Amino acid sequence: QEVVSEESEEESNGVNLMEFSDEILLHILSYVPCTDLVLNVRRTCRKLATLCLDKSLTHTVLLQKDYKVNKDKVKQLMRDIGKEIYQLNMAGCYWLPSSTIDHVTRCKNLVKLNLSGCHVTSLRLSKMLSMLQHLRSLAIDVNPGFDASQLSSECKATLSHVSELKQTLYTPSYGVVPCCTSLEKLLLYFEILDRSREGFMLSGQLMVGESNVPHYQNLRIFYARLAPGYVNQEVVRLYLAVLSDRTPENLHAFLISAPGSFAETGATKNLLDSMARNVRLDALQLPKAWINGSGLLQHLKFNNPFYFSFSRCTLSGGHLIQRVINGGKDLKSLTSLNLSGCVHCLAPESLFRKAEDDIDSSILESLVVSCCNLRHLNLSAAHHHSSESLGNHLCQLLSRLKHLLSLALPVCSITDVAASVEKPPTTPNLVPQTFGRKVRIGIQTYPRNLGDQANQKIESSVFWALMGSLRFLETLEIIGSSFSSAMPRNEPAIRNSLPPCVRAQSVGDSEVAAISQLTYLQSLTLAQLPNILTGSGLLSIGLQCQHLRTLSLANLGMMGKVVYMSALMDMLKHCKCLRDLRLEQPYFCAGAQFFQALSHCSSLQRLCIVSRSGTLQSDAVMSFMASCLEVIMCHMFMGESLTVCKNLQQSIVRSFQAERPALNVVIFPLLHEDLTEVIRDVPMRHLDEITLFKSRVAEEPPNLWW
Questions:
Q1: CATH architecture for the domain at 405-414+463-488+499-691
Q2: Which residue ranges does the record assign to the F-box domain (predicted)?
């Protein structure tokens, strides 16, 4: 009886969730997916039934990464709260049948709708938009077969009021742009392939009957991102043709992201000249050919710029300071800067300079002082070598940027100058970074104990100090300046890789351990760190960075052996929040021990492994998929035979597709000639976010869309 009375007393003194105020409960419920709130939680009690339908929870519905949602759940959701929804995001819901879109018509008050990555035909789009008269923001895909002539007059009336439009184009078309006569923000993503599945060359000419008069007079933001390919360049020029005739007076952001060579034409030159005369910009990104060798930046006027991208341009540091930063004047408004691949951006001039020469620290210092509020900075894909001048190391100067949330650096930029100059390369680094015959070598001992590791001289290194000063950093990328992924876009897999920079030879386990100071780190990318001997720093990150959600590791240590496998498996046992894992390493063995360790990542949703001559154990993969119930994407490009890959892929789909509607499985030989055909069927969300390797820091302006 005494025990029972004590238990009842504890229960009476305990905290009852329902006793919290409505404000606190609403805040807690805001972290629950809307489908769970409406379809499950609100059925538990009367109080939650009322709170789950509060306007603060039903005003905006986000389904874009709710991988468990299906057609029936969407139908029921729209039936229950459709009239209360003002913003609906279904981006990337590739697994939902196109008929699901029909239920969106219940949301009569919709103002903002994102259907990027969803299957929508012209007729369905017309029927849906005819019912959404309050719509002002729209995101859609334009697929082959799209016909603007099928859009009804009621649909066009709705589009005439749309002020924000995002279009992803998979076929040459204007889409719905000509119908949007009130456009203020236009985002275009060009994903058109140069060849059809049958191998025929495609043309960039638009279909007969397409209107060629987009309405840009009210345009404030123009953004275009091109996938590789000549057709994409042809089509974007048609969109720009109208802009070159008359530049909108209110234009304040003009951004074009184009890989490779995108030549300037007379029309684009007229457009840029008109912009220089008539507008003041807040955000700018141009193809490198439009900037290189021109005096454009000297004539463009800026208001309160928040985003600049000069990715892959030959812009020198002297021009950067004089023409963009106005000789070091105050640029506190700038929050995002992308200088990826801008090899001379920290040098006074580029005419007689080699890419490997030391940087001019005064240029970087001017940049840091002027742009003191930077939150996103990308300096990757270049050799930024610091001189031996005391206090002028790149890491020391960047430590002044206390507001940084994301940072991308080349591996050679983080090494201590004295260490890289005085210390001879260790024995493992004398082995060529090739895929040739394996060589047996000795591996120097490295402290496995984290306490001993932290007490080494790394605490006095400039990179250790930088990590200590950026305690609120959420995204970090350390990428070798000569690194290239084995899986480029629309091309066969790369069979050989360039050797790492000489300055990067000393970067290894101790630098990785320094990253563990970033308590709030959410996304980490490490590529081409040649001096990884045991990977012991990875365990330190696993223990200390408990918010880590995305991890990408590529070509660490020796290329002929995965030297960090043991440390990686120890690390994964502590990554409870990890959702995305990408591994790219030759000779990677995806066996039972690896997948057993990976099974500890209970939140894992997406896995991608790229490995030339890599192997896998089918039984281990199946056991992993059975134990990790959240995994909806499994991409493996290995050295196994086509038969082994196909059989495993079919087994996974057959066993788990019914329970996981969003399941996407691609298992294929990395060096197979049909790899590009397989890649084109991968949903764009996965392809863009994890399968293809790229630097993502400052890739786009912050808050460009949702």
A1: Alpha-Beta Horseshoe (3.80)
A2: 14-61
